[in-house]
Amino acid sequence: MSGRKTNSRAKILAAAADVAREFGPGSVSLEAVASRAGVSKGGLLYYFPSKARLMQALVEHYLAEFRSSLSQAQAGGETLLTAFIKRAAAECREKQPASRSWIFSAISQDPDFLSPLRSFHQQLFANLKEDNSDLTAVLICYLAIEGLRSMNLFDFDILSTEERELLVASLLEIAQGKR
Amino acid sequence: MSGRKTNSRAKILAAAADVAREFGPGSVSLEAVASRAGVSKGGLLYYFPSKARLMQALVEHYLAEFRSSLSQAQAGGETLLTAFIKRAAAECREKQPASRSWIFSAISQDPDFLSPLRSFHQQLFANLKEDNSDLTAVLICYLAIEGLRSMNLFDFDILSTEERELLVASLLEIAQGKR
DNA sequence: CTTACTGTACCGGCTGGACGGTCTTGTCAA
DNA sequence: TTGACAAGACCGTCCAGCCGGTACAGTAAG
To answer: Per-residue pLDDT tens for A4-21?
Structure first.
């Protein structure tokens, strides 16, 4: 077929996420991912020499995306905290539910795959505290957003759209010290 | 009926949670759980005729515990919201980190195992709204607590003890309309 | 000739589950 | 009181199936 400039790598990563979302995290096998990506098993293993590498790449890819979209939001002259809130809200709006189910596959494979995520969050939280003198506001906003993201991850559609927007608006007020 | 004093069922459930926490959610196999519980594989299968049943029981057991401790906290004449906050805070203090890792095993096995949890949370949130007229306060407190629980679940020890206590104190103030 | 794959075939390991057997316990007729 | 017996509470083994990973031969594009 097409031999050149293929972005099979990206396709495979997307396929892994799709399989996890559609068929459940337990269904993420090399075969399933390969067939979903329109690639043979051999082709998959050409890019990711082991399942562990695939999972690792999944985490790293997500983290890179997260980072870039955060700094992009921050480039508009916003505070880190408001950028974080807005970005999370946008994610909840745009992405389909359970779009991060692959995380469960990764944890099942090896919980250590989360450590990059952990250290990222640690640093993010540290930066948030540095950036905003009101520790209470940082705590409330950060945890509430993580709660929102958690709901999204587990596909708990508990909040209505209006409630979510109300929450985000309230958090933005708190973040700006207007409470 | 039989006369054997049997707490094997409870032991097996605890063992499953222990295996998930110590060796990772991917290591929860019937054999591993059985050996951890001091029971043979056949014995395990006697109590839980399939792995799916084990997972289901795990969810139900957790839910029953959650419910009872919530209503117990509420029996002291507290609001549902404050009871929820205090209970979650206590859980973070007492339980060892990642003590709910078995959830990941259940999701990997079949995401539908979460639906009892989902409907419980839906009802809990509905009750919270009914009980407290300040929707914003309910939203913030509920989501922030869920964020805290999420941190605990993923074993992200991002907050110091003081920060956590500060957060809880702030949330309790918000819950009581003292903000 | 190299790169970037495809496709097939295969292997060893592990897992869930079935099955048959064994020991223990409570029941009840004699 | 006893002793037979059914039922309960396990144990140990076996097996089919899937999964990750390897090996390798082939192929089409650049």
So the answer is: 335 888 899 999 999 999
Checking each nucleotide's C1' against the CA of A53, the nearest proves to be D20
Residue B150 pLDDT > 70 = yes
CB contact B147 to A (< 8 Å): yes
Residues of A in contact with B117 (CB under 8 A): 154, 156
Q: Residue B76, CB half-sphere, CA atoms under 13 Å: how many?
A: 11
Please report, for chain B, the start and end positions of each structural domain, with discontinuous segments joined by +.
8-175
CA distance B129 to B123: 10
Res A152 pLDDT > 60: yes
Stated as kind and residue range, the H or E segment containing A164 is helix A161-175
pLDDT for residue A70 is more than 50: yes
Q: Rounded mean pLDDT of chain A? A: 91
Whole-number Å distance, CA B34 to C1' D5? 31
Find residues 38-97 of chain A whose CB sits inside 8 Å of chain B.
Answer: none
pLDDT at B174 over 80: yes
Q: Do B108 and A156 touch (CB under 8 A)?
A: no
pLDDT at position A40 over 70: yes
* A167–B101 CB contact, under 8 Å: no
Of A62-66, B7-11, B86-90, the one with minimum mean pLDDT is B7-11
B127-CA/C19-C1' distance, Å: 49
B8-175 belongs to CATH 3.40.50.2000: no
Residues of A in contact with B147 (CB under 8 A): 142-150
Quote the percentage of chain A above a pLDDT of 90.
78
A108 contacts in chain B (CB < 8 Å): 24-26, 104-105, 108
